[in-house]
Design a protein that fits this description.
binds 1,6-di-O-phosphono-alpha-D-glucopyranose; Alpha-D-Glucose-1,6-Bisphosphate, Chain A, domain 3; seven-stranded mixed sheet; alpha/beta; TATA-Binding Protein
Protein backbone atom coordinates (compact mmCIF):
# COMPACT_ATOMS: atom_id res chain seq x y z
CA UNK A 1 0.00 0.00 0.00
CA UNK A 2 1.54 3.28 -1.05
CA UNK A 3 0.79 6.84 -0.12
CA UNK A 4 0.44 9.33 -2.96
CA UNK A 5 0.42 13.12 -3.00
CA UNK A 6 -2.01 14.20 -5.69
CA UNK A 7 -1.96 17.69 -7.16
CA UNK A 8 -5.25 19.53 -6.86
CA UNK A 9 -6.44 23.00 -7.71
CA UNK A 10 -7.73 25.08 -4.80
CA UNK A 11 -11.46 25.46 -5.34
CA UNK A 12 -13.42 28.68 -4.95
CA UNK A 13 -16.09 28.94 -2.29
CA UNK A 14 -15.22 26.07 0.03
CA UNK A 15 -16.39 28.22 2.92
CA UNK A 16 -18.34 26.33 5.56
CA UNK A 17 -21.72 27.97 6.15
CA UNK A 18 -24.02 27.77 9.17
CA UNK A 19 -23.37 24.05 9.31
CA UNK A 20 -20.44 22.83 7.23
CA UNK A 21 -19.84 22.89 3.49
CA UNK A 22 -23.02 22.28 1.48
CA UNK A 23 -23.05 22.18 -2.30
CA UNK A 24 -24.73 20.43 -5.16
CA UNK A 25 -23.66 16.80 -5.60
CA UNK A 26 -22.31 17.73 -9.03
CA UNK A 27 -19.98 20.24 -7.39
CA UNK A 28 -18.68 17.60 -4.98
CA UNK A 29 -18.20 15.19 -7.90
CA UNK A 30 -15.59 17.43 -9.54
CA UNK A 31 -12.21 15.66 -9.41
CA UNK A 32 -10.35 16.75 -6.29
CA UNK A 33 -13.20 18.83 -4.80
CA UNK A 34 -14.03 16.61 -1.84
CA UNK A 35 -10.38 15.66 -1.43
CA UNK A 36 -9.20 19.28 -1.23
CA UNK A 37 -11.70 20.11 1.48
CA UNK A 38 -10.95 16.97 3.49
CA UNK A 39 -7.21 17.59 3.22
CA UNK A 40 -7.81 21.13 4.50
CA UNK A 41 -9.64 19.66 7.50
CA UNK A 42 -6.83 17.22 8.21
CA UNK A 43 -4.25 20.00 7.86
CA UNK A 44 -6.17 22.17 10.34
CA UNK A 45 -6.89 19.37 12.80
CA UNK A 46 -3.48 17.89 13.70
CA UNK A 47 -5.12 16.42 16.81
CA UNK A 48 -6.57 13.71 14.57
CA UNK A 49 -3.15 12.20 13.90
CA UNK A 50 -2.66 9.09 16.00
CA UNK A 51 -6.25 9.32 17.21
CA UNK A 52 -9.75 8.14 16.40
CA UNK A 53 -12.00 9.74 13.79
CA UNK A 54 -15.75 9.10 13.54
CA UNK A 55 -17.19 8.95 10.03
CA UNK A 56 -20.72 8.60 8.73
CA UNK A 57 -23.59 10.40 7.12
CA UNK A 58 -27.27 10.48 6.38
CA UNK A 59 -27.07 7.93 3.58
CA UNK A 60 -27.78 10.36 0.78
CA UNK A 61 -26.45 9.93 -2.75
CA UNK A 62 -22.60 10.16 -2.82
CA UNK A 63 -22.35 9.19 0.88
CA UNK A 64 -20.69 5.84 0.23
CA UNK A 65 -18.30 7.20 -2.41
CA UNK A 66 -17.24 10.01 -0.11
CA UNK A 67 -16.65 7.60 2.78
CA UNK A 68 -14.37 5.37 0.70
CA UNK A 69 -12.31 8.38 -0.38
CA UNK A 70 -12.11 9.80 3.15
CA UNK A 71 -11.00 6.43 4.56
CA UNK A 72 -8.10 6.28 2.11
CA UNK A 73 -7.17 9.87 2.90
CA UNK A 74 -7.41 9.26 6.65
CA UNK A 75 -4.94 6.39 6.31
CA UNK A 76 -2.57 8.67 4.42
CA UNK A 77 -2.88 11.40 7.04
CA UNK A 78 -1.81 9.37 10.05
CA UNK A 79 -5.17 8.67 11.63
CA UNK A 80 -4.99 5.66 13.89
CA UNK A 81 -8.59 4.40 13.83
CA UNK A 82 -11.81 5.30 12.07
CA UNK A 83 -15.23 4.34 13.44
CA UNK A 84 -17.72 4.18 10.56
CA UNK A 85 -21.44 3.62 10.86
CA UNK A 86 -22.65 0.45 9.14
CA UNK A 87 -23.77 1.22 5.60
CA UNK A 88 -22.08 4.61 6.00
CA UNK A 89 -24.98 5.65 8.23
CA UNK A 90 -24.70 7.87 11.29
CA UNK A 91 -27.31 10.43 12.16
CA UNK A 92 -25.84 13.76 13.23
CA UNK A 93 -26.77 13.33 16.92
CA UNK A 94 -25.56 9.71 16.83
CA UNK A 95 -22.23 10.86 15.37
CA UNK A 96 -21.94 13.28 18.27
CA UNK A 97 -22.77 10.50 20.75
CA UNK A 98 -20.18 8.15 19.20
CA UNK A 99 -17.45 10.82 19.23
CA UNK A 100 -18.08 11.44 22.93
CA UNK A 101 -18.48 7.84 24.03
CA UNK A 102 -15.39 6.57 22.21
CA UNK A 103 -13.30 9.65 23.02
CA UNK A 104 -12.64 10.27 19.35
CA UNK A 105 -10.63 13.35 18.49
CA UNK A 106 -13.16 14.44 15.90
CA UNK A 107 -15.64 13.37 13.28
CA UNK A 108 -16.66 14.00 9.70
CA UNK A 109 -20.43 14.11 9.28
CA UNK A 110 -21.64 13.78 5.71
CA UNK A 111 -24.98 15.46 5.20
CA UNK A 112 -26.75 18.39 3.64
CA UNK A 113 -29.34 18.01 6.37
CA UNK A 114 -32.85 18.87 5.20
CA UNK A 115 -31.78 19.75 1.64
CA UNK A 116 -32.97 17.31 -1.07
CA UNK A 117 -30.64 14.48 -2.13
CA UNK A 118 -29.96 12.43 -5.27
CA UNK A 119 -27.67 13.05 -8.24
CA UNK A 120 -29.16 16.53 -8.73
CA UNK A 121 -29.56 17.22 -5.03
CA UNK A 122 -27.18 18.42 -2.37
CA UNK A 123 -24.30 16.95 -0.43
CA UNK A 124 -22.41 18.28 2.55
CA UNK A 125 -19.55 17.68 4.94
CA UNK A 126 -18.98 19.01 8.42
CA UNK A 127 -16.10 18.66 10.84
CA UNK A 128 -16.99 18.01 14.48
CA UNK A 129 -14.46 18.38 17.27
CA UNK A 130 -13.70 16.16 20.26
CA UNK A 131 -16.65 17.45 22.31
CA UNK A 132 -18.90 15.95 19.62
CA UNK A 133 -20.10 19.29 18.34
CA UNK A 134 -19.59 21.31 15.17
CA UNK A 135 -16.19 22.98 14.93
CA UNK A 136 -16.30 26.57 16.16
CA UNK A 137 -15.93 29.49 13.78
CA UNK A 138 -12.19 29.91 14.39
CA UNK A 139 -11.67 26.35 13.12
CA UNK A 140 -14.03 26.58 10.14
CA UNK A 141 -12.38 29.87 9.15
CA UNK A 142 -8.94 28.23 9.32
CA UNK A 143 -10.21 25.35 7.16
CA UNK A 144 -11.57 27.83 4.63
CA UNK A 145 -8.25 29.72 4.50
CA UNK A 146 -6.45 26.42 3.98
CA UNK A 147 -8.73 25.50 1.06
CA UNK A 148 -7.56 28.66 -0.69
CA UNK A 149 -3.91 27.68 -0.67
CA UNK A 150 -4.05 23.91 -0.88
CA UNK A 151 -2.13 22.38 -3.80
CA UNK A 152 -2.16 18.64 -3.05
CA UNK A 153 -3.89 16.00 -1.00
CA UNK A 154 -2.62 12.73 0.48
CA UNK A 155 -4.26 9.41 -0.25
CA UNK A 156 -3.37 5.71 -0.19
CA UNK A 157 -4.37 3.10 -2.73
CA UNK A 158 -6.55 0.50 -1.09
CA UNK A 159 -9.54 -1.68 -1.90
CA UNK A 160 -12.93 -0.33 -0.86
CA UNK A 161 -13.99 -1.26 2.67
CA UNK A 162 -17.16 -3.34 2.98
CA UNK A 163 -19.28 -0.82 4.84
CA UNK A 164 -22.11 -3.28 5.42
CA UNK A 165 -20.04 -5.73 7.44
CA UNK A 166 -19.67 -4.92 11.14
CA UNK A 167 -16.13 -5.47 12.38
CA UNK A 168 -12.56 -4.25 11.96
CA UNK A 169 -10.08 -4.35 9.13
CA UNK A 170 -6.92 -2.49 8.21
CA UNK A 171 -5.96 0.07 5.63
CA UNK A 172 -2.19 0.04 6.07
CA UNK A 173 -1.65 0.66 9.77
CA UNK A 174 -5.03 2.34 10.24
CA UNK A 175 -7.92 0.34 11.72
CA UNK A 176 -11.36 0.80 10.21
CA UNK A 177 -14.13 -0.40 12.50
CA UNK A 178 -17.64 -0.60 11.10
CA UNK A 179 -20.02 -0.13 14.05
CA UNK A 180 -23.74 -0.47 14.57
CA UNK A 181 -24.91 3.12 13.99
CA UNK A 182 -27.71 2.95 16.57
CA UNK A 183 -26.25 1.15 19.65
CA UNK A 184 -24.39 3.99 21.39
CA UNK A 185 -27.13 6.48 20.70
CA UNK A 186 -29.97 4.24 21.85
CA UNK A 187 -28.13 3.46 25.07
CA UNK A 188 -27.58 7.16 25.74
CA UNK A 189 -31.23 8.08 25.22
CA UNK A 190 -32.35 5.08 27.25
CA UNK A 191 -30.74 6.68 30.29
CA UNK A 192 -32.51 10.02 29.93
CA UNK A 193 -36.20 9.20 29.75
CA UNK A 194 -38.78 7.13 31.61
CA UNK A 195 -39.05 4.28 29.13
CA UNK A 196 -41.58 2.35 31.26
CA UNK A 197 -43.97 5.30 31.34
CA UNK A 198 -43.55 5.97 27.60
CA UNK A 199 -44.11 2.27 26.86
CA UNK A 200 -47.37 2.39 28.81
CA UNK A 201 -48.45 5.52 26.94
CA UNK A 202 -47.72 4.02 23.53
CA UNK A 203 -49.60 0.84 24.49
CA UNK A 204 -52.81 2.76 25.12
CA UNK A 205 -55.44 2.08 22.45
CA UNK A 206 -56.65 5.68 22.58
CA UNK A 207 -53.18 7.16 21.97
CA UNK A 208 -52.74 7.55 18.23
CA UNK A 209 -49.09 8.09 17.37
CA UNK A 210 -47.03 8.43 14.20
CA UNK A 211 -43.38 9.20 13.48
CA UNK A 212 -42.34 10.15 9.94
CA UNK A 213 -38.68 9.46 9.16
CA UNK A 214 -39.12 11.07 5.72
CA UNK A 215 -37.04 8.30 4.08
CA UNK A 216 -34.03 9.80 5.79
CA UNK A 217 -31.54 8.65 8.38
CA UNK A 218 -33.81 8.38 11.44
CA UNK A 219 -35.63 5.29 10.14
CA UNK A 220 -33.34 2.74 11.82
CA UNK A 221 -33.03 4.85 14.95
CA UNK A 222 -36.80 5.30 15.27
CA UNK A 223 -37.42 1.60 14.70
CA UNK A 224 -34.98 0.62 17.43
CA UNK A 225 -36.14 3.17 19.99
CA UNK A 226 -39.84 3.51 19.31
CA UNK A 227 -40.75 0.06 18.04
CA UNK A 228 -38.21 -2.38 19.54
CA UNK A 229 -37.50 -0.66 22.85
CA UNK A 230 -40.78 1.16 23.48
CA UNK A 231 -43.26 -1.17 21.83
CA UNK A 232 -44.91 1.23 19.39
CA UNK A 233 -46.61 -0.58 16.49
CA UNK A 234 -44.23 -0.98 13.53
CA UNK A 235 -46.82 0.78 11.37
CA UNK A 236 -46.51 3.94 13.48
CA UNK A 237 -43.02 4.63 12.10
CA UNK A 238 -43.51 5.59 8.46
CA UNK A 239 -41.07 6.22 5.60
CA UNK A 240 -38.51 4.39 7.74
CA UNK A 241 -36.16 3.12 5.02
CA UNK A 242 -33.37 5.62 4.31
CA UNK A 243 -33.18 6.28 0.57
CA UNK A 244 -30.36 7.98 -1.32
CA UNK A 245 -32.78 10.56 -2.68
CA UNK A 246 -35.21 10.55 0.27
CA UNK A 247 -37.83 9.19 -2.12
CA UNK A 248 -37.64 12.43 -4.11
CA UNK A 249 -38.86 14.40 -1.10
CA UNK A 250 -37.52 17.34 0.81
CA UNK A 251 -36.56 15.88 4.19
CA UNK A 252 -37.36 19.00 6.16
CA UNK A 253 -39.81 18.41 9.01
CA UNK A 254 -42.15 21.36 8.79
CA UNK A 255 -45.80 21.80 7.81
CA UNK A 256 -44.84 22.55 4.19
CA UNK A 257 -42.55 19.59 3.55
CA UNK A 258 -44.36 17.04 5.74
CA UNK A 259 -47.89 17.89 4.54
CA UNK A 260 -49.45 14.45 5.06
CA UNK A 261 -48.40 14.22 8.66
CA UNK A 262 -49.50 17.80 9.27
CA UNK A 263 -52.88 17.14 7.70
CA UNK A 264 -53.45 13.95 9.69
CA UNK A 265 -52.57 15.50 13.05
CA UNK A 266 -53.34 19.19 12.81
CA UNK A 267 -56.06 19.55 10.18
CA UNK A 268 -57.91 16.22 10.51
CA UNK A 269 -57.17 15.57 14.19
CA UNK A 270 -56.51 11.86 13.49
CA UNK A 271 -53.39 11.66 15.64
CA UNK A 272 -52.77 12.56 19.26
CA UNK A 273 -49.05 12.93 18.79
CA UNK A 274 -47.03 13.06 15.60
CA UNK A 275 -43.45 13.92 14.86
CA UNK A 276 -40.96 14.00 12.02
CA UNK A 277 -37.23 14.34 11.63
CA UNK A 278 -34.99 15.55 8.84
CA UNK A 279 -32.31 14.19 6.49
CA UNK A 280 -29.64 13.71 9.16
CA UNK A 281 -31.87 13.27 12.20
CA UNK A 282 -31.10 16.44 14.10
CA UNK A 283 -34.32 18.37 13.46
CA UNK A 284 -37.74 17.63 14.87
CA UNK A 285 -41.30 18.74 14.30
CA UNK A 286 -43.81 18.13 17.08
CA UNK A 287 -47.53 17.99 16.31
CA UNK A 288 -50.56 17.30 18.45
CA UNK A 289 -54.21 16.85 17.64
CA UNK A 290 -55.16 20.17 16.06
CA UNK A 291 -51.88 21.92 16.91
CA UNK A 292 -48.37 22.38 15.53
CA UNK A 293 -45.86 23.22 18.24
CA UNK A 294 -43.46 25.96 17.19
CA UNK A 295 -39.85 24.96 17.85
CA UNK A 296 -39.48 27.99 20.10
CA UNK A 297 -42.46 26.94 22.20
CA UNK A 298 -41.18 23.37 22.25
CA UNK A 299 -37.90 24.49 23.84
CA UNK A 300 -39.80 26.60 26.36
CA UNK A 301 -42.18 23.78 27.31
CA UNK A 302 -39.36 21.25 27.67
CA UNK A 303 -37.39 23.69 29.84
CA UNK A 304 -40.42 24.34 32.04
CA UNK A 305 -41.10 20.60 32.43
CA UNK A 306 -37.55 19.25 32.33
CA UNK A 307 -37.64 17.71 35.78
CA UNK A 308 -40.35 15.27 34.65
CA UNK A 309 -37.71 13.38 32.63
CA UNK A 310 -35.36 11.27 34.79
CA UNK A 311 -32.24 12.56 33.01
CA UNK A 312 -33.08 16.12 34.01
CA UNK A 313 -34.78 15.44 37.36
CA UNK A 314 -32.22 17.54 39.21
CA UNK A 315 -33.13 20.61 37.17
CA UNK A 316 -31.42 22.49 34.38
CA UNK A 317 -28.52 24.90 34.73
CA UNK A 318 -29.58 27.30 31.99
CA UNK A 319 -31.04 27.53 28.50
CA UNK A 320 -29.91 29.07 25.24
CA UNK A 321 -31.68 29.92 22.02
CA UNK A 322 -30.52 31.34 18.73
CA UNK A 323 -31.30 35.02 18.27
CA UNK A 324 -34.17 34.56 15.77
CA UNK A 325 -35.83 31.94 18.02
CA UNK A 326 -38.77 33.42 19.94
CA UNK A 327 -38.27 34.63 23.47
CA UNK A 328 -40.63 32.02 24.92
CA UNK A 329 -37.69 30.19 26.61
CA UNK A 330 -36.56 33.46 28.21
CA UNK A 331 -39.84 33.68 30.12
CA UNK A 332 -39.32 30.18 31.51
CA UNK A 333 -35.71 30.94 32.44
CA UNK A 334 -36.84 34.02 34.37
CA UNK A 335 -39.36 31.93 36.32
CA UNK A 336 -36.80 29.21 37.03
CA UNK A 337 -34.19 31.84 37.91
CA UNK A 338 -31.65 30.30 35.55
CA UNK A 339 -29.48 31.93 32.88
CA UNK A 340 -30.79 32.33 29.33
CA UNK A 341 -28.39 33.00 26.47
CA UNK A 342 -29.07 34.44 23.01
CA UNK A 343 -26.60 33.15 20.42
CA UNK A 344 -26.23 33.57 16.66
CA UNK A 345 -27.88 31.01 14.36
CA UNK A 346 -25.81 27.81 14.22
CA UNK A 347 -25.51 24.95 16.68
CA UNK A 348 -21.77 25.55 17.00
CA UNK A 349 -22.49 28.60 19.17
CA UNK A 350 -24.00 26.42 21.92
CA UNK A 351 -20.88 24.26 22.27
CA UNK A 352 -18.94 26.40 24.74
CA UNK A 353 -22.00 27.05 26.91
CA UNK A 354 -22.75 23.31 27.05
CA UNK A 355 -19.13 22.38 27.76
CA UNK A 356 -18.94 24.97 30.54
CA UNK A 357 -22.12 23.62 32.14
CA UNK A 358 -23.82 27.02 31.79
CA UNK A 359 -26.77 25.50 29.91
CA UNK A 360 -28.52 22.14 29.87
CA UNK A 361 -31.09 22.72 27.12
CA UNK A 362 -30.84 24.73 23.91
CA UNK A 363 -32.77 25.16 20.71
CA UNK A 364 -33.47 27.03 17.54
CA UNK A 365 -36.49 28.10 15.56
CA UNK A 366 -35.23 25.92 12.69
CA UNK A 367 -36.75 22.82 14.30
CA UNK A 368 -33.74 22.06 16.46
CA UNK A 369 -33.75 21.20 20.16
CA UNK A 370 -31.31 19.30 22.33
CA UNK A 371 -29.43 19.12 25.60
CA UNK A 372 -26.00 18.50 27.03
CA UNK A 373 -26.25 14.73 26.33
CA UNK A 374 -24.64 15.41 22.92
CA UNK A 375 -23.30 18.50 21.18
CA UNK A 376 -25.75 18.50 18.26
CA UNK A 377 -29.43 19.04 18.02
CA UNK A 378 -31.32 15.81 18.32
CA UNK A 379 -34.63 15.02 16.63
CA UNK A 380 -35.55 11.76 18.36
CA UNK A 381 -34.44 13.13 21.71
CA UNK A 382 -37.11 15.84 21.38
CA UNK A 383 -39.72 13.25 20.38
CA UNK A 384 -38.91 11.07 23.40
CA UNK A 385 -38.93 14.11 25.68
CA UNK A 386 -42.43 15.05 24.52
CA UNK A 387 -43.62 11.45 24.93
CA UNK A 388 -42.12 11.43 28.43
CA UNK A 389 -43.93 14.68 29.15
CA UNK A 390 -47.28 13.34 27.94
CA UNK A 391 -46.75 10.16 29.94
CA UNK A 392 -45.96 12.16 33.07
CA UNK A 393 -49.00 14.42 32.72
CA UNK A 394 -51.84 11.92 32.30
CA UNK A 395 -55.10 13.21 30.90
CA UNK A 396 -53.38 16.08 29.10
CA UNK A 397 -52.82 16.58 25.39
CA UNK A 398 -50.21 18.47 23.41
CA UNK A 399 -52.71 21.30 23.05
CA UNK A 400 -53.66 21.44 26.72
CA UNK A 401 -50.01 21.42 27.74
CA UNK A 402 -49.35 24.35 25.42
CA UNK A 403 -52.41 26.26 26.57
CA UNK A 404 -51.42 25.83 30.20
CA UNK A 405 -47.93 27.01 29.29
CA UNK A 406 -49.21 30.13 27.51
CA UNK A 407 -51.54 30.89 30.38
CA UNK A 408 -48.66 30.92 32.78
CA UNK A 409 -45.90 32.48 30.67
CA UNK A 410 -47.80 34.32 27.92
CA UNK A 411 -47.80 33.32 24.26
CA UNK A 412 -45.09 34.25 21.77
CA UNK A 413 -46.77 34.25 18.37
CA UNK A 414 -44.12 33.30 15.91
CA UNK A 415 -43.55 32.66 12.22
CA UNK A 416 -40.68 32.49 9.75
CA UNK A 417 -41.08 33.45 6.09
CA UNK A 418 -38.49 32.12 3.64
CA UNK A 419 -37.83 33.43 0.15
CA UNK A 420 -35.74 30.70 -1.45
CA UNK A 421 -33.30 30.73 -4.37
CA UNK A 422 -33.44 34.51 -4.63
CA UNK A 423 -30.89 36.26 -6.82
CA UNK A 424 -27.99 36.94 -4.43
CA UNK A 425 -27.67 40.57 -5.52
CA UNK A 426 -31.36 41.24 -4.99
CA UNK A 427 -31.30 39.59 -1.56
CA UNK A 428 -28.38 41.75 -0.53
CA UNK A 429 -30.08 44.86 -1.88
CA UNK A 430 -33.21 44.19 0.19
CA UNK A 431 -31.25 43.57 3.37
CA UNK A 432 -29.05 46.58 2.77
CA UNK A 433 -32.16 48.71 2.47
CA UNK A 434 -33.26 47.65 5.95
CA UNK A 435 -29.72 47.94 7.30
CA UNK A 436 -29.51 51.55 6.12
CA UNK A 437 -32.84 52.33 7.80
CA UNK A 438 -31.92 50.83 11.19
CA UNK A 439 -30.47 53.96 12.88
CA UNK A 440 -33.67 55.94 12.24
CA UNK A 441 -36.11 53.24 13.40
CA UNK A 442 -36.09 53.55 17.21
CA UNK A 443 -39.05 55.69 18.24
CA UNK A 444 -41.09 54.79 15.14
CA UNK A 445 -44.11 52.52 15.50
CA UNK A 446 -45.23 49.16 14.10
CA UNK A 447 -48.99 48.74 14.48
CA UNK A 448 -49.03 50.78 17.67
CA UNK A 449 -45.89 49.24 19.17
CA UNK A 450 -42.89 51.50 19.66
CA UNK A 451 -39.55 50.36 18.25
CA UNK A 452 -37.08 50.42 21.11
CA UNK A 453 -33.95 49.17 19.30
CA UNK A 454 -32.77 48.26 15.83
CA UNK A 455 -29.36 46.78 15.08
CA UNK A 456 -27.24 44.14 13.40
CA UNK A 457 -26.83 41.37 15.99
CA UNK A 458 -23.32 40.78 17.31
CA UNK A 459 -22.38 38.09 19.83
CA UNK A 460 -19.57 37.81 22.30
CA UNK A 461 -19.13 34.25 23.52
CA UNK A 462 -19.32 34.44 27.32
CA UNK A 463 -16.92 31.51 27.69
CA UNK A 464 -14.04 32.26 25.32
CA UNK A 465 -14.74 35.90 24.45
CA UNK A 466 -14.78 35.29 20.70
CA UNK A 467 -16.89 37.75 18.71
CA UNK A 468 -19.26 37.15 15.81
CA UNK A 469 -20.66 40.14 13.99
CA UNK A 470 -23.29 40.63 11.29
CA UNK A 471 -25.57 37.86 12.59
CA UNK A 472 -28.94 39.27 11.55
CA UNK A 473 -30.86 42.55 11.42
CA UNK A 474 -33.16 43.08 14.39
CA UNK A 475 -36.03 45.50 14.91
CA UNK A 476 -37.20 45.23 18.51
CA UNK A 477 -40.32 46.59 20.21
CA UNK A 478 -39.30 45.97 23.81
CA UNK A 479 -40.62 42.66 25.11
CA UNK A 480 -43.66 42.94 22.83
CA UNK A 481 -42.41 42.18 19.35
CA UNK A 482 -39.44 41.58 17.10
CA UNK A 483 -38.77 41.42 13.40
CA UNK A 484 -35.55 39.84 12.19
CA UNK A 485 -34.04 39.53 8.72
CA UNK A 486 -31.02 37.51 7.69
CA UNK A 487 -29.61 35.41 4.89
CA UNK A 488 -29.55 31.67 5.40
CA UNK A 489 -26.14 30.07 5.67
CA UNK A 490 -27.30 26.66 4.50
CA UNK A 491 -28.82 27.20 1.05
CA UNK A 492 -27.04 25.99 -2.07
CA UNK A 493 -28.92 27.95 -4.73
CA UNK A 494 -28.77 31.74 -4.90
CA UNK A 495 -29.73 33.25 -1.55
CA UNK A 496 -32.45 32.35 0.92
CA UNK A 497 -33.85 35.35 2.76
CA UNK A 498 -35.37 34.56 6.13
CA UNK A 499 -37.78 36.93 7.84
CA UNK A 500 -38.76 36.10 11.42
CA UNK A 501 -41.72 37.60 13.25
CA UNK A 502 -42.54 37.46 16.96
CA UNK A 503 -45.35 39.03 18.96
CA UNK A 504 -46.05 38.56 22.66
CA UNK A 505 -49.54 38.23 24.13
CA UNK A 506 -49.73 37.87 27.90
CA UNK A 507 -53.52 37.73 28.25
CA UNK A 508 -54.85 34.12 27.99
CA UNK A 509 -58.23 35.50 26.89
CA UNK A 510 -56.60 36.95 23.78
CA UNK A 511 -54.47 33.97 22.76
CA UNK A 512 -56.54 32.76 19.79
CA UNK A 513 -54.76 30.76 17.09
CA UNK A 514 -54.64 33.48 14.39
CA UNK A 515 -50.87 33.60 14.04
CA UNK A 516 -50.38 35.16 10.59
CA UNK A 517 -53.13 37.77 11.15
CA UNK A 518 -51.55 38.82 14.42
CA UNK A 519 -48.19 39.15 12.79
CA UNK A 520 -49.46 41.07 9.74
CA UNK A 521 -48.31 44.53 10.91
CA UNK A 522 -44.78 43.16 11.36
CA UNK A 523 -44.95 41.42 7.98
CA UNK A 524 -46.06 44.66 6.28
CA UNK A 525 -43.36 46.63 8.06
CA UNK A 526 -40.71 44.18 6.87
CA UNK A 527 -41.82 44.62 3.26
CA UNK A 528 -41.92 48.39 3.60
CA UNK A 529 -38.38 48.48 4.97
CA UNK A 530 -36.73 45.85 2.78
CA UNK A 531 -38.75 46.16 -0.44
CA UNK A 532 -38.07 42.43 -0.76
CA UNK A 533 -41.15 41.50 -2.78
CA UNK A 534 -40.79 44.51 -5.01
CA UNK A 535 -37.09 43.90 -5.63
CA UNK A 536 -37.45 40.17 -6.27
CA UNK A 537 -40.84 40.25 -7.99
CA UNK A 538 -42.02 37.52 -5.60
CA UNK A 539 -45.63 37.68 -4.48
CA UNK A 540 -45.22 35.58 -1.34
CA UNK A 541 -42.70 33.54 0.64
CA UNK A 542 -41.86 30.02 -0.58
CA UNK A 543 -42.08 28.54 2.89
CA UNK A 544 -43.94 29.74 5.96
CA UNK A 545 -43.23 27.94 9.21
C1 LIG B 1 -28.40 24.21 10.39
C2 LIG B 1 -27.71 24.61 11.67
C3 LIG B 1 -28.67 25.28 12.59
C4 LIG B 1 -29.36 26.43 11.89
C5 LIG B 1 -30.02 25.94 10.61
C6 LIG B 1 -30.58 27.07 9.79
O1 LIG B 1 -29.30 23.20 10.66
O2 LIG B 1 -27.17 23.47 12.30
O3 LIG B 1 -27.96 25.72 13.70
O4 LIG B 1 -30.33 27.00 12.71
O5 LIG B 1 -29.07 25.30 9.82
O6 LIG B 1 -29.53 27.91 9.42
P1 LIG B 1 -29.73 29.01 8.32
O7 LIG B 1 -30.86 29.86 8.82
O8 LIG B 1 -28.44 29.74 8.26
O9 LIG B 1 -30.12 28.33 7.03
P2 LIG B 1 -29.28 21.87 9.80
O10 LIG B 1 -30.42 21.05 10.34
O11 LIG B 1 -29.48 22.33 8.39
O12 LIG B 1 -27.93 21.27 10.03
Amino acid sequence: MSMREVATPSFEGQKPGTSGLRKKVTVFQQPGYLESFVQAVFDCAPELQGGTLVLGGDGRFFNRNAIQTILRMAAANGIDRVLVGQGGILSTPAASAVIRRHRARGGLVLSASHNPGGPDGDFGIKYNIANGGPAPEAVTEAIYRRTQTIRQYRIVDADPVDLDQIGSRKIGTMTVTVIDPVDDYAMLLGGLFDFDAIRALLARKDFRFRFDAMHAVTGPYARRLLVEMLGAPASSVVNAVPLEDFGGGHPDPNPVYAPELYKAAVLDGELDFAAASDGDGDRNMILGKGIAVTPSDSLAVLAANATLAPGYARGISGVARSMPTSRAPDAVARALKIECFETPTGWKFFGNLLDAGRITLCGEESYGTSSDHVREKDGLWAVLFWLNLLAARPGETVLSILQAHWKRYGRHYYSRHDYEAVDAGQATEALNQLRAALPALPGQKIGGLVITAADDFAYRDPVDGSESKGQGLRVICGEQARLIARLSGTGTEGATVRLYFELYEADPAKQADDVQTRLQPLIDFAEAQTGLRKITGRAAPDVIT
